[in-house]
Protein backbone atom coordinates (compact mmCIF):
# COMPACT_ATOMS: atom_id res chain seq x y z
CA UNK A 1 0.00 0.00 0.00
CA UNK A 2 3.05 2.29 0.21
CA UNK A 3 2.76 3.36 -3.44
CA UNK A 4 -0.79 4.59 -2.90
CA UNK A 5 0.37 7.18 -0.39
CA UNK A 6 2.76 8.88 -2.81
CA UNK A 7 0.07 10.83 -4.66
CA UNK A 8 -3.22 10.14 -2.91
CA UNK A 9 -4.33 9.11 0.55
CA UNK A 10 -6.29 5.88 0.94
CA UNK A 11 -9.29 7.87 2.14
CA UNK A 12 -9.49 9.56 -1.27
CA UNK A 13 -9.84 6.23 -3.07
CA UNK A 14 -12.71 3.83 -3.49
CA UNK A 15 -12.25 0.16 -2.66
CA UNK A 16 -12.01 -0.71 -6.35
CA UNK A 17 -9.35 1.94 -6.92
CA UNK A 18 -7.32 0.53 -4.03
CA UNK A 19 -7.59 -2.99 -5.43
CA UNK A 20 -6.50 -1.84 -8.86
CA UNK A 21 -3.44 -0.13 -7.43
CA UNK A 22 -2.57 -3.36 -5.66
CA UNK A 23 -2.81 -5.16 -9.01
CA UNK A 24 -0.52 -2.52 -10.48
CA UNK A 25 2.13 -3.39 -7.90
CA UNK A 26 1.67 -7.13 -8.51
CA UNK A 27 2.15 -6.66 -12.26
CA UNK A 28 5.41 -4.83 -11.62
CA UNK A 29 6.60 -7.62 -9.30
CA UNK A 30 5.97 -10.06 -12.15
CA UNK A 31 8.17 -7.93 -14.40
CA UNK A 32 5.22 -6.64 -16.43
CA UNK A 33 5.39 -2.97 -17.38
CA UNK A 34 1.76 -1.74 -17.15
CA UNK A 35 2.58 1.19 -19.44
CA UNK A 36 5.07 -0.11 -22.06
CA UNK A 37 6.76 2.20 -24.57
CA UNK A 38 7.15 -0.18 -27.49
CA UNK A 39 5.01 0.09 -30.59
CA UNK A 40 2.23 -2.46 -30.78
CA UNK A 41 1.64 -3.57 -34.35
CA UNK A 42 -2.04 -3.49 -35.33
CA UNK A 43 -2.99 -5.33 -38.52
CA UNK A 44 -6.76 -4.76 -38.51
CA UNK A 45 -9.56 -2.66 -37.12
CA UNK A 46 -12.75 -4.17 -35.75
CA UNK A 47 -14.83 -2.48 -38.42
CA UNK A 48 -12.64 -3.92 -41.18
CA UNK A 49 -12.74 -7.38 -39.62
CA UNK A 50 -16.53 -7.34 -39.46
CA UNK A 51 -16.87 -6.14 -43.04
CA UNK A 52 -14.35 -8.62 -44.45
CA UNK A 53 -14.68 -11.56 -42.05
CA UNK A 54 -12.57 -14.57 -43.01
CA UNK A 55 -12.72 -17.71 -40.88
CA UNK A 56 -9.35 -18.72 -39.34
CA UNK A 57 -7.67 -15.46 -40.43
CA UNK A 58 -4.91 -14.42 -38.00
CA UNK A 59 -5.17 -10.83 -36.80
CA UNK A 60 -3.61 -8.40 -34.32
CA UNK A 61 -5.68 -5.58 -32.84
CA UNK A 62 -5.57 -3.24 -29.84
CA UNK A 63 -8.28 -1.59 -27.80
CA UNK A 64 -10.04 -1.28 -24.46
CA UNK A 65 -11.42 -4.32 -22.64
CA UNK A 66 -15.12 -3.54 -22.15
CA UNK A 67 -16.41 -6.85 -20.84
CA UNK A 68 -14.80 -9.93 -19.28
CA UNK A 69 -16.53 -13.03 -17.99
CA UNK A 70 -13.93 -15.42 -16.62
CA UNK A 71 -15.23 -18.98 -16.45
CA UNK A 72 -13.34 -22.23 -15.78
CA UNK A 73 -10.72 -22.79 -18.46
CA UNK A 74 -12.49 -20.65 -21.06
CA UNK A 75 -13.69 -17.06 -20.90
CA UNK A 76 -15.46 -14.48 -23.07
CA UNK A 77 -14.97 -10.75 -23.26
CA UNK A 78 -15.41 -7.75 -25.51
CA UNK A 79 -12.81 -5.38 -26.91
CA UNK A 80 -13.45 -1.89 -28.28
CA UNK A 81 -11.23 0.03 -30.68
CA UNK A 82 -11.86 3.34 -32.44
CA UNK A 83 -14.09 1.64 -35.02
CA UNK A 84 -16.34 -0.66 -32.99
CA UNK A 85 -16.68 -3.57 -30.58
CA UNK A 86 -16.11 -7.30 -30.97
CA UNK A 87 -16.34 -10.46 -28.89
CA UNK A 88 -13.11 -12.14 -27.81
CA UNK A 89 -12.54 -15.66 -26.46
CA UNK A 90 -9.80 -16.97 -24.17
CA UNK A 91 -8.85 -20.53 -23.27
CA UNK A 92 -6.22 -21.73 -20.83
CA UNK A 93 -4.72 -24.08 -23.42
CA UNK A 94 -4.06 -21.37 -26.00
CA UNK A 95 -3.39 -18.13 -24.12
CA UNK A 96 0.11 -16.66 -23.78
CA UNK A 97 1.15 -13.29 -22.36
CA UNK A 98 3.80 -10.83 -23.48
CA UNK A 99 6.16 -12.36 -20.89
CA UNK A 100 5.80 -15.84 -22.38
CA UNK A 101 4.47 -17.24 -19.09
CA UNK A 102 3.20 -20.75 -18.95
CA UNK A 103 -0.30 -21.17 -20.37
CA UNK A 104 -1.93 -21.85 -17.03
CA UNK A 105 -0.09 -18.94 -15.37
CA UNK A 106 -1.10 -16.56 -18.12
CA UNK A 107 -4.72 -17.57 -17.75
CA UNK A 108 -4.99 -17.91 -13.97
CA UNK A 109 -2.67 -15.14 -12.78
CA UNK A 110 -2.60 -12.64 -15.58
CA UNK A 111 -6.12 -12.82 -17.03
CA UNK A 112 -8.19 -13.92 -14.01
CA UNK A 113 -6.54 -11.79 -11.35
CA UNK A 114 -4.64 -8.86 -12.84
CA UNK A 115 -6.56 -7.76 -15.95
CA UNK A 116 -9.62 -5.54 -15.46
CA UNK A 117 -12.41 -4.09 -17.52
CA UNK A 118 -11.14 -0.77 -18.85
CA UNK A 119 -7.56 -1.96 -19.40
CA UNK A 120 -6.11 -1.29 -22.84
CA UNK A 121 -4.73 -4.48 -24.33
CA UNK A 122 -3.24 -5.83 -27.51
CA UNK A 123 -4.40 -9.24 -28.69
CA UNK A 124 -3.40 -11.65 -31.40
CA UNK A 125 -5.50 -14.56 -32.49
CA UNK A 126 -7.66 -16.05 -35.22
CA UNK A 127 -11.25 -15.45 -36.29
CA UNK A 128 -14.15 -17.85 -35.89
CA UNK A 129 -17.92 -17.84 -35.36
CA UNK A 130 -19.60 -19.18 -32.27
CA UNK A 131 -22.57 -21.53 -32.28
CA UNK A 132 -24.71 -18.38 -32.05
CA UNK A 133 -23.03 -17.23 -35.29
CA UNK A 134 -21.27 -14.31 -33.58
CA UNK A 135 -17.96 -13.17 -35.04
CA UNK A 136 -15.29 -13.75 -32.42
CA UNK A 137 -11.52 -13.53 -31.97
CA UNK A 138 -9.91 -16.58 -30.37
CA UNK A 139 -7.06 -14.96 -28.46
CA UNK A 140 -3.75 -16.80 -28.25
CA UNK A 141 -1.56 -13.87 -27.15
CA UNK A 142 -2.38 -10.90 -24.88
CA UNK A 143 -0.28 -7.80 -24.09
CA UNK A 144 -1.13 -5.21 -21.45
CA UNK A 145 -0.70 -1.76 -23.03
CA UNK A 146 -2.18 0.47 -20.33
CA UNK A 147 -3.53 -0.42 -16.89
CA UNK A 148 -6.77 1.33 -15.89
CA UNK A 149 -6.65 2.16 -12.18
CA UNK A 150 -10.09 3.77 -12.07
CA UNK A 151 -13.09 1.53 -12.89
CA UNK A 152 -15.47 2.43 -15.70
CA UNK A 153 -19.19 2.78 -15.00
CA UNK A 154 -20.75 -0.53 -16.01
CA UNK A 155 -24.04 -0.33 -17.83
CA UNK A 156 -26.36 -3.21 -16.91
CA UNK A 157 -29.52 -4.25 -18.72
CA UNK A 158 -32.46 -5.98 -17.18
CA UNK A 159 -33.63 -7.67 -20.39
CA UNK A 160 -36.85 -8.87 -18.83
CA UNK A 161 -38.02 -5.39 -17.80
CA UNK A 162 -35.98 -3.62 -20.49
CA UNK A 163 -34.41 -1.31 -17.92
CA UNK A 164 -30.86 0.05 -17.94
CA UNK A 165 -29.01 0.41 -14.64
CA UNK A 166 -25.84 2.34 -13.77
CA UNK A 167 -25.73 4.02 -17.19
CA UNK A 168 -23.34 6.94 -17.47
CA UNK A 169 -26.18 9.32 -18.28
CA UNK A 170 -25.92 12.15 -15.74
CA UNK A 171 -25.64 15.29 -17.89
CA UNK A 172 -23.10 17.10 -15.72
CA UNK A 173 -20.90 14.01 -15.41
CA UNK A 174 -21.02 13.38 -19.16
CA UNK A 175 -19.94 16.93 -20.02
CA UNK A 176 -17.32 17.12 -17.27
CA UNK A 177 -15.80 13.70 -18.02
CA UNK A 178 -16.28 13.55 -21.77
CA UNK A 179 -13.52 10.93 -22.00
CA UNK A 180 -15.68 8.50 -20.00
CA UNK A 181 -18.75 9.50 -22.00
CA UNK A 182 -16.90 8.60 -25.21
CA UNK A 183 -15.75 5.25 -23.80
CA UNK A 184 -19.07 3.93 -22.53
CA UNK A 185 -21.60 5.67 -24.80
CA UNK A 186 -20.73 4.69 -28.36
CA UNK A 187 -23.27 7.04 -29.96
CA UNK A 188 -21.48 10.10 -28.53
CA UNK A 189 -18.41 9.55 -30.68
CA UNK A 190 -20.57 9.07 -33.76
CA UNK A 191 -22.22 12.40 -33.08
CA UNK A 192 -18.92 14.28 -32.88
CA UNK A 193 -17.71 12.57 -36.04
CA UNK A 194 -20.84 13.99 -37.68
CA UNK A 195 -19.87 17.47 -36.46
CA UNK A 196 -16.51 17.02 -38.15
CA UNK A 197 -18.20 15.93 -41.38
CA UNK A 198 -20.45 19.01 -41.31
CA UNK A 199 -17.42 21.29 -41.06
CA UNK A 200 -15.63 19.32 -43.79
CA UNK A 201 -18.67 19.73 -46.06
CA UNK A 202 -18.73 23.49 -45.52
CA UNK A 203 -15.00 23.74 -46.15
CA UNK A 204 -15.31 21.71 -49.34
CA UNK A 205 -18.20 23.90 -50.55
CA UNK A 206 -16.19 27.09 -49.99
CA UNK A 207 -12.96 25.69 -51.43
CA UNK A 208 -14.74 24.71 -54.65
CA UNK A 209 -15.85 28.33 -55.00
CA UNK A 210 -12.20 29.40 -54.88
CA UNK A 211 -12.33 31.08 -51.47
CA UNK A 212 -9.20 30.93 -49.31
CA UNK A 213 -9.13 29.66 -45.72
CA UNK A 214 -6.98 31.87 -43.49
CA UNK A 215 -5.97 32.30 -39.84
CA UNK A 216 -6.28 35.58 -37.95
CA UNK A 217 -5.10 36.52 -34.44
CA UNK A 218 -6.80 35.08 -31.38
CA UNK A 219 -4.95 37.54 -29.13
CA UNK A 220 -5.98 41.03 -30.20
CA UNK A 221 -4.97 44.49 -28.91
CA UNK A 222 -8.58 45.73 -29.24
CA UNK A 223 -11.78 43.70 -28.71
CA UNK A 224 -13.32 44.69 -32.04
CA UNK A 225 -15.82 43.44 -34.60
CA UNK A 226 -18.73 42.96 -32.19
CA UNK A 227 -20.22 44.26 -28.95
CA UNK A 228 -19.35 41.88 -26.12
CA UNK A 229 -17.41 41.70 -22.88
CA UNK A 230 -13.96 40.25 -23.67
CA UNK A 231 -11.56 38.05 -21.73
CA UNK A 232 -8.51 40.14 -20.91
CA UNK A 233 -4.90 39.10 -20.40
CA UNK A 234 -1.51 40.86 -20.29
CA UNK A 235 1.57 40.48 -22.46
CA UNK A 236 4.60 40.87 -20.22
CA UNK A 237 7.18 41.51 -22.95
CA UNK A 238 5.14 44.11 -24.82
CA UNK A 239 3.73 45.53 -21.60
CA UNK A 240 0.21 45.82 -22.99
CA UNK A 241 -3.20 44.29 -22.33
CA UNK A 242 -4.48 41.80 -24.92
CA UNK A 243 -7.93 40.33 -25.45
CA UNK A 244 -9.17 36.95 -26.60
CA UNK A 245 -11.03 37.72 -29.79
CA UNK A 246 -14.75 38.30 -29.65
CA UNK A 247 -14.78 38.38 -33.47
CA UNK A 248 -12.36 38.00 -36.38
CA UNK A 249 -14.40 40.23 -38.71
CA UNK A 250 -12.10 43.25 -38.87
CA UNK A 251 -9.03 41.17 -39.69
CA UNK A 252 -10.76 39.38 -42.55
CA UNK A 253 -11.86 42.73 -43.97
CA UNK A 254 -8.24 43.87 -43.86
CA UNK A 255 -7.44 40.94 -46.16
CA UNK A 256 -10.14 42.09 -48.60
CA UNK A 257 -8.47 45.53 -48.53
CA UNK A 258 -5.17 43.77 -49.23
CA UNK A 259 -6.48 42.19 -52.41
CA UNK A 260 -7.93 38.81 -51.48
CA UNK A 261 -11.15 38.13 -53.40
CA UNK A 262 -12.80 35.77 -50.93
CA UNK A 263 -11.57 34.63 -47.50
CA UNK A 264 -13.05 32.50 -44.74
CA UNK A 265 -12.08 31.26 -41.29
CA UNK A 266 -13.52 28.84 -38.76
CA UNK A 267 -12.97 31.20 -35.86
CA UNK A 268 -12.85 30.23 -32.21
CA UNK A 269 -14.34 33.25 -30.44
CA UNK A 270 -14.51 34.08 -26.72
CA UNK A 271 -17.04 36.19 -24.86
CA UNK A 272 -16.97 36.76 -21.11
CA UNK A 273 -20.72 36.59 -20.71
CA UNK A 274 -23.52 34.37 -19.49
CA UNK A 275 -23.91 30.64 -20.08
CA UNK A 276 -27.09 28.83 -21.02
CA UNK A 277 -28.27 26.11 -23.39
CA UNK A 278 -27.37 28.16 -26.49
CA UNK A 279 -24.38 30.16 -25.16
CA UNK A 280 -20.89 29.01 -24.20
CA UNK A 281 -17.97 31.37 -23.37
CA UNK A 282 -16.04 29.96 -26.34
CA UNK A 283 -17.72 29.02 -29.57
CA UNK A 284 -17.01 28.50 -33.27
CA UNK A 285 -18.15 30.79 -36.06
CA UNK A 286 -17.56 30.56 -39.80
CA UNK A 287 -16.85 34.03 -41.20
CA UNK A 288 -16.81 34.53 -44.98
CA UNK A 289 -16.11 37.74 -46.92
CA UNK A 290 -16.37 38.08 -50.71
CA UNK A 291 -15.40 41.21 -52.66
CA UNK A 292 -17.72 42.91 -55.14
CA UNK A 293 -20.85 41.27 -53.68
CA UNK A 294 -23.76 42.56 -51.60
CA UNK A 295 -26.22 41.15 -49.08
CA UNK A 296 -28.68 40.11 -51.79
CA UNK A 297 -25.98 37.91 -53.32
CA UNK A 298 -25.00 36.63 -49.88
CA UNK A 299 -28.60 35.63 -49.12
CA UNK A 300 -28.65 33.47 -52.24
CA UNK A 301 -25.22 32.05 -51.43
CA UNK A 302 -26.12 31.25 -47.80
CA UNK A 303 -29.32 29.59 -48.99
CA UNK A 304 -27.32 27.33 -51.33
CA UNK A 305 -24.77 26.51 -48.63
CA UNK A 306 -27.40 25.58 -46.02
CA UNK A 307 -29.37 23.56 -48.58
CA UNK A 308 -26.20 21.70 -49.61
CA UNK A 309 -25.40 20.75 -46.01
CA UNK A 310 -28.99 19.71 -45.34
CA UNK A 311 -29.02 17.48 -48.45
CA UNK A 312 -25.84 15.81 -47.19
CA UNK A 313 -27.27 14.86 -43.81
CA UNK A 314 -31.04 14.61 -44.28
CA UNK A 315 -30.88 10.81 -44.66
CA UNK A 316 -29.31 10.54 -41.18
CA UNK A 317 -31.90 12.66 -39.40
CA UNK A 318 -35.71 12.82 -39.51
CA UNK A 319 -36.06 16.59 -39.75
CA UNK A 320 -39.32 18.34 -38.91
CA UNK A 321 -38.02 21.40 -40.78
CA UNK A 322 -38.51 22.11 -44.48
CA UNK A 323 -35.44 23.41 -46.31
CA UNK A 324 -37.40 24.15 -49.46
CA UNK A 325 -36.01 27.13 -51.33
CA UNK A 326 -36.29 30.02 -51.72
CA UNK A 327 -36.34 30.91 -48.02
CA UNK A 328 -38.81 33.69 -47.10
CA UNK A 329 -37.33 37.20 -46.70
CA UNK A 330 -39.11 39.29 -44.08
CA UNK A 331 -38.13 42.82 -42.88
CA UNK A 332 -37.53 42.77 -39.13
CA UNK A 333 -39.95 45.63 -38.40
CA UNK A 334 -42.67 43.86 -40.40
CA UNK A 335 -42.09 40.74 -38.31
CA UNK A 336 -42.41 42.71 -35.08
CA UNK A 337 -45.61 44.35 -36.29
CA UNK A 338 -47.07 40.96 -37.22
CA UNK A 339 -46.39 39.30 -33.85
CA UNK A 340 -46.87 42.28 -31.51
CA UNK A 341 -49.22 44.61 -33.38
CA UNK A 342 -46.82 47.55 -32.94
CA UNK A 343 -45.26 49.54 -35.77
CA UNK A 344 -41.79 50.58 -34.54
CA UNK A 345 -40.58 52.40 -37.65
CA UNK A 346 -40.69 55.93 -36.23
CA UNK A 347 -40.80 55.20 -32.53
CA UNK A 348 -38.30 56.79 -30.21
CA UNK A 349 -36.54 55.08 -27.34
CA UNK A 350 -39.10 56.06 -24.68
CA UNK A 351 -41.96 54.74 -26.82
CA UNK A 352 -40.10 51.45 -27.24
CA UNK A 353 -39.65 51.17 -23.48
CA UNK A 354 -43.40 51.53 -22.96
CA UNK A 355 -44.06 48.81 -25.53
CA UNK A 356 -41.57 46.51 -23.76
CA UNK A 357 -43.41 47.12 -20.52
CA UNK A 358 -46.73 46.22 -22.15
CA UNK A 359 -45.20 43.07 -23.65
CA UNK A 360 -43.44 42.13 -20.36
CA UNK A 361 -40.03 42.31 -22.00
CA UNK A 362 -36.89 43.32 -20.11
CA UNK A 363 -36.06 47.00 -20.49
CA UNK A 364 -34.46 49.85 -18.60
CA UNK A 365 -33.45 53.44 -19.18
CA UNK A 366 -29.89 52.43 -19.97
CA UNK A 367 -30.84 50.29 -22.97
CA UNK A 368 -30.35 51.80 -26.42
CA UNK A 369 -33.07 51.92 -29.08
CA UNK A 370 -31.24 49.15 -30.94
CA UNK A 371 -31.15 46.93 -27.84
CA UNK A 372 -34.86 47.42 -27.18
CA UNK A 373 -35.79 46.46 -30.75
CA UNK A 374 -33.51 43.43 -30.52
CA UNK A 375 -35.16 42.32 -27.26
CA UNK A 376 -38.65 42.65 -28.73
CA UNK A 377 -37.75 40.59 -31.80
CA UNK A 378 -35.97 37.87 -29.80
CA UNK A 379 -38.78 37.55 -27.26
CA UNK A 380 -41.84 37.78 -29.50
CA UNK A 381 -40.83 36.91 -33.06
CA UNK A 382 -37.75 34.72 -33.38
CA UNK A 383 -39.37 31.58 -31.95
CA UNK A 384 -42.04 31.62 -34.69
CA UNK A 385 -39.63 30.94 -37.54
CA UNK A 386 -39.11 27.19 -37.68
CA UNK A 387 -38.41 26.78 -41.39
CA UNK A 388 -35.40 28.77 -42.67
CA UNK A 389 -36.28 32.46 -42.93
CA UNK A 390 -34.20 35.54 -43.71
CA UNK A 391 -35.00 38.44 -41.39
CA UNK A 392 -33.78 41.50 -43.31
CA UNK A 393 -33.32 45.28 -43.26
CA UNK A 394 -32.49 46.05 -39.65
CA UNK A 395 -32.50 49.66 -38.38
CA UNK A 396 -29.13 51.36 -38.90
CA UNK A 397 -28.42 51.71 -35.18
CA UNK A 398 -28.60 47.91 -34.81
CA UNK A 399 -25.89 47.41 -37.44
CA UNK A 400 -22.84 49.70 -37.03
CA UNK A 401 -20.66 47.74 -39.50
CA UNK A 402 -23.33 47.58 -42.22
CA UNK A 403 -24.05 49.77 -45.24
CA UNK A 404 -27.14 51.93 -45.12
CA UNK A 405 -29.93 50.53 -47.28
CA UNK A 406 -29.77 51.81 -50.82
CA UNK A 407 -33.57 52.26 -51.03
CA UNK A 408 -34.97 52.32 -47.48
CA UNK A 409 -34.34 55.23 -45.16
CA UNK A 410 -32.85 54.55 -41.69
CA UNK A 411 -32.42 50.84 -42.48
CA UNK A 412 -29.34 48.75 -43.26
CA UNK A 413 -28.49 46.02 -45.74
CA UNK A 414 -28.36 43.22 -43.23
CA UNK A 415 -30.00 39.84 -42.79
CA UNK A 416 -30.20 37.16 -40.13
CA UNK A 417 -31.02 33.56 -41.00
CA UNK A 418 -33.43 32.09 -38.44
CA UNK A 419 -34.05 28.33 -38.33
CA UNK A 420 -35.98 26.43 -35.68
CA UNK A 421 -36.45 29.65 -33.73
CA UNK A 422 -32.73 30.45 -33.46
CA UNK A 423 -30.35 32.77 -35.28
CA UNK A 424 -27.95 30.69 -37.38
CA UNK A 425 -26.30 33.35 -39.53
CA UNK A 426 -25.80 37.12 -39.63
CA UNK A 427 -24.71 38.97 -42.77
CA UNK A 428 -24.19 42.45 -44.23
CA UNK A 429 -23.35 44.51 -47.20
CA UNK A 430 -20.15 45.57 -45.43
CA UNK A 431 -19.68 49.25 -44.67
CA UNK A 432 -16.60 50.45 -46.57
CA UNK A 433 -16.96 54.23 -46.11
CA UNK A 434 -14.19 55.02 -43.54
CA UNK A 435 -15.73 58.35 -42.48
CA UNK A 436 -19.22 56.91 -41.91
CA UNK A 437 -17.67 53.87 -40.17
CA UNK A 438 -15.69 56.03 -37.75
CA UNK A 439 -18.72 58.18 -36.93
CA UNK A 440 -20.90 55.14 -36.25
CA UNK A 441 -18.29 53.47 -34.05
CA UNK A 442 -17.92 56.66 -32.05
CA UNK A 443 -21.69 56.81 -31.58
CA UNK A 444 -21.74 53.17 -30.51
CA UNK A 445 -19.05 53.81 -27.91
CA UNK A 446 -21.16 56.58 -26.41
CA UNK A 447 -24.08 54.19 -26.10
CA UNK A 448 -21.89 51.41 -24.74
CA UNK A 449 -20.12 53.49 -22.10
CA UNK A 450 -23.33 55.11 -20.93
CA UNK A 451 -25.79 52.27 -21.16
CA UNK A 452 -24.38 48.76 -21.27
CA UNK A 453 -22.06 47.80 -18.46
CA UNK A 454 -21.66 44.18 -19.64
CA UNK A 455 -20.60 45.04 -23.17
CA UNK A 456 -17.70 47.04 -24.56
CA UNK A 457 -16.47 48.34 -27.87
CA UNK A 458 -13.30 50.16 -28.88
CA UNK A 459 -12.31 51.89 -32.08
CA UNK A 460 -9.78 49.90 -34.06
CA UNK A 461 -7.82 52.80 -35.52
CA UNK A 462 -5.80 50.51 -37.77
CA UNK A 463 -9.01 49.08 -39.26
CA UNK A 464 -10.23 52.60 -40.08
CA UNK A 465 -6.83 53.28 -41.67
CA UNK A 466 -7.22 50.12 -43.76
CA UNK A 467 -10.63 51.32 -44.99
CA UNK A 468 -9.06 54.66 -45.92
CA UNK A 469 -6.87 52.82 -48.43
CA UNK A 470 -10.11 51.55 -50.00
CA UNK A 471 -12.07 48.33 -49.50
CA UNK A 472 -14.10 47.05 -52.44
CA UNK A 473 -17.86 46.56 -52.04
CA UNK A 474 -18.01 43.38 -49.96
CA UNK A 475 -20.55 40.93 -48.61
CA UNK A 476 -19.85 39.13 -45.36
CA UNK A 477 -21.58 36.44 -43.36
CA UNK A 478 -21.01 34.80 -39.98
CA UNK A 479 -22.52 31.35 -39.39
CA UNK A 480 -22.67 29.91 -35.88
CA UNK A 481 -21.18 26.45 -36.31
CA UNK A 482 -22.28 25.18 -32.90
CA UNK A 483 -25.88 26.26 -33.51
CA UNK A 484 -25.79 24.83 -37.03
CA UNK A 485 -24.59 21.49 -35.64
CA UNK A 486 -27.34 21.64 -32.99
CA UNK A 487 -29.85 22.13 -35.78
CA UNK A 488 -28.55 19.39 -38.07
CA UNK A 489 -28.23 16.86 -35.23
CA UNK A 490 -31.40 17.96 -33.44
CA UNK A 491 -29.69 18.70 -30.13
CA UNK A 492 -31.27 21.14 -27.67
CA UNK A 493 -28.17 22.30 -25.80
CA UNK A 494 -24.88 23.76 -27.03
CA UNK A 495 -23.09 21.68 -24.39
CA UNK A 496 -24.13 18.57 -26.32
CA UNK A 497 -22.25 19.70 -29.43
CA UNK A 498 -19.00 20.71 -27.70
CA UNK A 499 -16.49 18.07 -26.72
CA UNK A 500 -15.45 20.02 -23.64
CA UNK A 501 -18.04 22.67 -22.71
CA UNK A 502 -17.21 25.17 -20.00
CA UNK A 503 -18.37 23.93 -16.59
CA UNK A 504 -18.64 25.36 -13.12
CA UNK A 505 -15.79 24.24 -10.83
CA UNK A 506 -16.27 20.70 -9.59
CA UNK A 507 -17.36 20.44 -5.99
CA UNK A 508 -14.66 19.33 -3.58
CA UNK A 509 -14.81 15.76 -2.42
CA UNK A 510 -15.91 14.27 -5.73
CA UNK A 511 -13.85 11.24 -6.68
Automatic annotation (TrEMBL):
<dbReference type="InterPro" id="IPR045864">
    <property type="entry name" value="aa-tRNA-synth_II/BPL/LPL"/>
</dbReference>
<dbReference type="InterPro" id="IPR044136">
    <property type="entry name" value="Lys-tRNA-ligase_II_N"/>
</dbReference>
<feature type="domain" description="Aminoacyl-transfer RNA synthetases class-II family profile">
    <location>
        <begin position="195"/>
        <end position="505"/>
    </location>
</feature>
<keyword id="KW-0648">Protein biosynthesis</keyword>
<comment type="similarity">
    <text>Belongs to the class-II aminoacyl-tRNA synthetase family.</text>
</comment>
<keyword id="KW-0963">Cytoplasm</keyword>
<dbReference type="GO" id="GO:0005524">
    <property type="term" value="F:ATP binding"/>
</dbReference>
<comment type="subunit">
    <text>Homodimer.</text>
</comment>
<dbReference type="GO" id="GO:0005829">
    <property type="term" value="C:cytosol"/>
</dbReference>
<dbReference type="Pfam" id="PF00152">
    <property type="entry name" value="tRNA-synt_2"/>
</dbReference>
<dbReference type="GO" id="GO:0006430">
    <property type="term" value="P:lysyl-tRNA aminoacylation"/>
</dbReference>
<keyword id="KW-0479">Metal-binding</keyword>
<dbReference type="InterPro" id="IPR006195">
    <property type="entry name" value="aa-tRNA-synth_II"/>
</dbReference>
<keyword id="KW-0460">Magnesium</keyword>
<dbReference type="GO" id="GO:0000049">
    <property type="term" value="F:tRNA binding"/>
</dbReference>
<feature type="binding site">
    <location>
        <position position="423"/>
    </location>
    <ligand>
        <name>Mg(2+) 2</name>
    </ligand>
</feature>
<dbReference type="Pfam" id="PF01336">
    <property type="entry name" value="tRNA_anti-codon"/>
</dbReference>
<dbReference type="InterPro" id="IPR004365">
    <property type="entry name" value="NA-bd_OB_tRNA"/>
</dbReference>
<keyword id="KW-0436">Ligase</keyword>
<feature type="binding site">
    <location>
        <position position="423"/>
    </location>
    <ligand>
        <name>Mg(2+) 1</name>
    </ligand>
</feature>
<keyword id="KW-0067">ATP-binding</keyword>
<dbReference type="InterPro" id="IPR012340">
    <property type="entry name" value="NA-bd_OB-fold"/>
</dbReference>
<feature type="binding site">
    <location>
        <position position="416"/>
    </location>
    <ligand>
        <name>Mg(2+) 1</name>
    </ligand>
</feature>
<dbReference type="GO" id="GO:0004824">
    <property type="term" value="F:lysine-tRNA ligase activity"/>
</dbReference>
<dbReference type="InterPro" id="IPR002313">
    <property type="entry name" value="Lys-tRNA-ligase_II"/>
</dbReference>
<keyword id="KW-0547">Nucleotide-binding</keyword>
<dbReference type="InterPro" id="IPR018149">
    <property type="entry name" value="Lys-tRNA-synth_II_C"/>
</dbReference>
<dbReference type="GO" id="GO:0000287">
    <property type="term" value="F:magnesium ion binding"/>
</dbReference>
<keyword id="KW-0030">Aminoacyl-tRNA synthetase</keyword>
<dbReference type="InterPro" id="IPR004364">
    <property type="entry name" value="Aa-tRNA-synt_II"/>
</dbReference>
<protein>
    <recommendedName>
        <fullName>Lysine--tRNA ligase</fullName>
        <ecNumber>6.1.1.6</ecNumber>
    </recommendedName>
</protein>
Amino acid sequence: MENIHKNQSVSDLSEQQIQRRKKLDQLKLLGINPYPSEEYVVTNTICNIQKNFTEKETISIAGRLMRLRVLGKASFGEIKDHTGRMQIYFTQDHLFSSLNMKKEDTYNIFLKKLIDIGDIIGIKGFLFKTKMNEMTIHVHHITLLSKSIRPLPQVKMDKKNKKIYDAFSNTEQRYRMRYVDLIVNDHVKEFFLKRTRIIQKIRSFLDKKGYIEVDTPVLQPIPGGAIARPFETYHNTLGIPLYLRISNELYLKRLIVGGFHGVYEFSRNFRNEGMDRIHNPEFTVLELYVAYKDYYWMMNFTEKLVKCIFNKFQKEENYHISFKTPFPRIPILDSIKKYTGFDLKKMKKEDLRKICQKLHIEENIKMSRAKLIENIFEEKCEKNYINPTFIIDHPVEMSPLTKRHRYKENLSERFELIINGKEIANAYSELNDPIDQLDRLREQIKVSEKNIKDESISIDVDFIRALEFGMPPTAGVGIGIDRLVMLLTQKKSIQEVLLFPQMRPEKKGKK
